Every structure is written in C-alpha cells, then in structure tokens.
Amino acid sequence: MSFLGNLFSKENKESLDQGLQKTKDSFFGKLGKAIAGKSTVDEEVLDNLEEILITSDVGVDTTLKIIQRIETRVAKDKYLGTAELDNILKEEVASLLSENNTDDLADFETPVGLKPYVLLVVGVNGVGKTTTIGKLAAQFKKKGKSVVLGAADTFRAAAVEQLKLWGIRVGIPVIAKGMNVDPSAVAFEAVEKGLEMGADVIIIDTAGRLHTKINLMQELSKIKRAIQKVLPDAPHDVMLVLDGSTGQNAVVQAREFTKATDVSCLAITKLDGTAKGGVVIGISDEFKIPVKYIGVGEKVEDLQTFNKKEFVDSLFNR
C-alpha cells in the first residue's frame, strides 16, 4: 500500500530518544568496555559487539547478519577506527531494516484511496493491545479522521470495558455487545456502523488467546468472513501487537501468530521500560513484516509511527 511521506517532529524525536534510553545506556555501556583501549575494529571488538547485540535482544541470526556487514566494511578499510563504529552500525542496521519491508510511514495517515480503512488487531493478553488501539484511535482523530472501534475481544470483560473507556475519553463510538458473545457478530456490526457513519477508520480488537493455533485461526477466519459480508476487501491490515519488554518472548509470539493468521504489520509496545529495544530490529529482520507503530511511553503521543532512520539514530547515537 502506498502511504504519504512521513513528517517526524522534534517532539516525536525527543520522546523516541527518551523511550529508548534504557536500551541505549545498556548498549553503549557494554560497547564502551568492549572497545576500551582499542583504536581499530579488530576480531575481538567484533566478537564483543556480537555478544552485545545478542544481549540487547537483536537475535542471533540478525546479529550475525549485522556483524557480517561490518566485517565486509572492515575488510575494505583495514584501519577502520572504533570511533567510526557507531556510524557504521547505524548505516548497516538502517540498511537491513530497509530490506525488510519496513518503510517509513506517514504520521497516522490511512492508505490512500481506502475509506473506511479496516484494521484488525491481534496479540496475546497483557501486551498493551487494547491500550494501543485506544491511542491509535486518539491519534487518528487528532489527524482529523473519524474512527469507530469494535470490541470483539469478548472473552475478557476487562477488554470490552477498557475499550469503552477509551471511546469515552477520546469521544469516538465503540461497538460492544458485552462478554461471551460471538466476536464475529461484533466485528460485523462495527464495520456496518462504520460504513453507515462514513468513518475513515474502523479498528477491531480481538481475543488474545494463543493456547491452540487452531482455535485462533478459526476464530480470526470467522471474524474476517463476517467483515467481508459488509466490506468484501476488508480487513485491509491485520496488526500484531507485541510487548518489546519481553524480548525474545515477543519473537516467539510473532512466530505463533504469523503461523495462525496473515499478519501484515506490527506494533511493538513498552520499549521505554526495557533495555531490550533491539528486539525491534530482530523481529523486523526475521519476519519481513513492516513495523508500523512503536510505543515509547505512557502518553497517547508516545505511540509513534515507526521511522527506521530516526529509530536507528536514537538507538545508536551517543
């Protein structure tokens, strides 16, 4: 899908810098020790860098790709200094993200030509799924978009109530039928209501159960079929929400969900409370699924559209 160009504000950058501070402090603290007394990037420095990237939850396979790229750079310039390592890291990681379908998206713009844009949101309980939907709705409304929410996570009373509270807080309609009702009926009604109202965006919350992939697959398939009775080309995106603070556990969840359903984009939350921010790079690299949003704080504005250049700059800039 084509998106409009991205504008990254000074406030967004400050929020991103602050949100990634724990990862950054941990990374550069370890890197400082690794290159102490070294003037050139040698085999020992690269071995230490490999270990640091893995412990920052970048993941083994992705780390090996990054190290291989840096080795190629070192081979070209035999006297590559450790002072240049930060810039080389930024360049190679940004390049890797570019190859992984991770485009810089417009700031809460919907795909051109789609009205309504229907977004189905999946993810296990506790990752910040419902909060992400609420923040997303608030950000879309701030951009002048009309939004409808569908509370189809009907297996948890808390999820339905939480979404209703977001609706009141933001001033947008929430289609809810309470707990233990058929999620596909809620999804159907949400899209129907969205069409009636001429909404720009319809976001549907779904149950976060992963105890068996078969159940999840069947449930999401049923929801999609219900939506398509009203709008044949919907949903336009299936977004998986992952908790970045869980590190490699988020990678495991991504594996399970991508096997169970067609995930088209990702939102990675809670990056401000962890030193595991490198997981964004590893997940993007392994799954080749665009990271669309990241959460770097509690405020509504701290849910940001993902900008790879700014993310890499914040993460690897001393």
Order of helices and strands: HHHHHEHEHEHEHEHEHEEH
Sketch the major β-sheet. 8 strands, mixed
Uncertain segments of ≥5 residues (pLDDT<50)? 1-6
Structural class by sheet pairing and helices? alpha/beta
Number of separate helices = 12
Q: How confident overall, as mean pLDDT?
A: 89
Give the neighbour order of strands across the main sheet.
3-2-4-1-5-6-7-8
β-strand percent reads: 5-15%
Roughly what percent helix? 40-55%
Q: Note the overall shape.
A: elongated
Topology:
Elements: H1 10-19, H2 21-35, H3 43-55, H4 60-76, H5 85-99, E1 117-122, H6 129-142, E2 147-152, H7 157-170, E3 174-175, H8 183-197, E4 201-206, H9 213-230, E5 237-243, H10 248-260, E6 265-269, H11 279-287, E7 291-295, E8 303-305, H12 308-316
Parallel strand pairs: 1-4, 1-5, 2-3, 2-4, 5-6, 6-7
Antiparallel strand pairs: 7-8
Provide a descriptive summary of the structure in words:
An eight-stranded mixed sheet has the order 3-2-4-1-5-6-7-8, with helices on both faces. The protein has helices at 10-19, 21-35, 43-55, 60-76, 85-99, 129-142, 157-170, 183-197, 213-230, 248-260, 279-287, 308-316, and strands at residues 117-122, 147-152, 174-175, 201-206, 237-243, 265-269, 291-295, 303-305. The model is unreliable at 1-6 (pLDDT under 50). α3 (43-55) packs antiparallel against α4 (60-76). It is 51% helix and 13% strand. It is built from twelve helices and eight strands. By secondary structure, it is an alpha/beta fold. It is elongated and about 65 Å long.
